[in-house]
Every structure is written in structure tokens, then in C-alpha cells.
Amino acid sequence: MPNKFLAILAFACLAFSGCKGSPTAQLRDGDIIFHTSRSEQSAAIQKATHSEYSHMGIIFFKSGRPYVYEAIKTVRYTPLKQWIARGIGSRYVVKRLRDADRILTPDAVKKLQKAAAAFEGKPYDVAFEWSDSHIYCSELVWKIYDRALGLHVGRLQKLSEFDLSDTIVKSKMKERYGNAIPMEETVISPSEMFLFSDLIVVAER
């Protein structure tokens, strides 16, 4: 009897570990995922925002499979596993609206998807301008929630509010703007959205 009990317990632990390593079953449309990008601008974003998270996207299911809708070279759908593998150490954090059961109804999800469709294929915004002609990662997710549901996931800021003192940041700013840095440009950062109080962690690695 003890041996049988231990065998069952061991199997249960393995099963639980497998679920923990694969977040798919825990996820739902509208979840927001964060990781540390390997891109050349990642270090500058991390320094300027004092956060390890430099890239993000929104999760949507297509034909039963999870995808991350993101702004990279263009706005596109990327399979979840592929997106996770791109991040440093394959680490990630998935967050969800605290009141998602009430807010993210099937109709609300359709509105999110419709809002998202308006950005598909748009080029990445290296200048971080607050326009729809080019889009960067956090801007994409913020605008989807804003335009679909009127929800502001994180506080909009001005570029001048970030820490621009680090040499890595200064170099990237010089590369992008020359001597005409748009200090009053409206921006939204991955870190500001990550810290938004109405988001809760639902999966991480």
C-alpha cells in the first residue's frame, strides 16, 4: 500500500510540473505577456525604465493555439512557444486583468481582436512616436485595450520622465533622434504596463 501511494504521489507531482512548464492551459485571450528581448535596443529600454522587461505582446488564440500579437519588424502573430524562446533565458511573465472574468466576455474579446486587426502589418516604430503609422510593442497593446474597451493599461508618460542619463541610453537616443530629442512625446513603456495595479500574474517562468 505505501509503495502504491508513493507511486501515485510521484505521478501527480510529475503531472503538476508538466502543467507548470507549459502555460497554455492557464492562458486566455487578452492576456499580456512580457519578456527581456535580445534586440539591440533592449538594454537601453531597460536602463531608461529601470525594468528587466523590454518587450511585450497580447495573447490571442487561433484555431485553439496561443499566439502573441506583437510589434517587431511589423505587427504580426507569433506562436507562443516561438515568442518565449526569443526572450533571454526563455523567461516570461503573463499578466491578466484583475477583473477579467467580468470584463473579458466573449463580446469584449471580439472587440479586442477587431481593434488588433487595424494594426496588423504596420511597421515597427523605432522613433516611439504616438501615431498609428508605425507601432511599437507596448503602444500596440495599450491602444488595443483603449480602443476596444476604453481601458488604460498603464499610465501614459512623456519621454522626459524616463532616465536618459545612462551612456547606453544616450547613444541610442543620439542614433534615433540626433540632437532633436522629442522630450515631450507621449509614450507608454513595457515597465509601466507591467506595474499596472489592475494586472495580476497568471503564469511565469
Write up what this structure looks like.
It is a single chain. With 205 residues, the chain is an alpha+beta fold. The chain has a single domain, classed as Alpha-Beta Complex (endopeptidase fold (from Nostoc punctiforme)), CATH 3.90.1720. It contains eight helices and eight strands. It has helices at residues 2-21, 42-49, 80-86, 100-103, 106-117, 137-149, 167-177, 190-194; strands at 32-35, 55-62, 65-71, 75-79, 93-97, 157-158, 186-187, 199-204. The strands form two sheets. It has a six-stranded antiparallel beta sheet with strand order 4-3-2-1-5-8, with helices on both faces. A two-stranded antiparallel sheet has the order 6-7. Helix 2 (42-49) packs across helix 7 and helix 5 crosses helix 6 (137-149). The protein is globular and about 50 Å long. It starts with a helix and ends with a strand. Mean pLDDT is 90; it is low at 1-21.
| Overall pLDDT confidence | 90
CATH C-level name? Alpha Beta
CATH architecture: Alpha-Beta Complex
CATH topology tier name: endopeptidase fold (from Nostoc punctiforme)
**Over all CA atoms, what is the radius of gyration?**
19 Å
Number of helices: 8
CATH superfamily annotation: endopeptidase domain like (from Nostoc punctiforme)
Order of helices and strands: HEHEEEHEHHHEHEHE
Percent helix? 25-40%
Give the strand order, joined by hyphens, for the main sheet: 4-3-2-1-5-8
Unreliable sequence segments: 1-21
- SS strand fraction: 15-25%
Number of domains: 1
Structural class: alpha+beta
Question: What is the strand tally?
Answer: 8
- The span between the termini is 36 Å
**Main beta sheet:** 6 strands, antiparallel
Q: What is the 3D shape?
A: globular
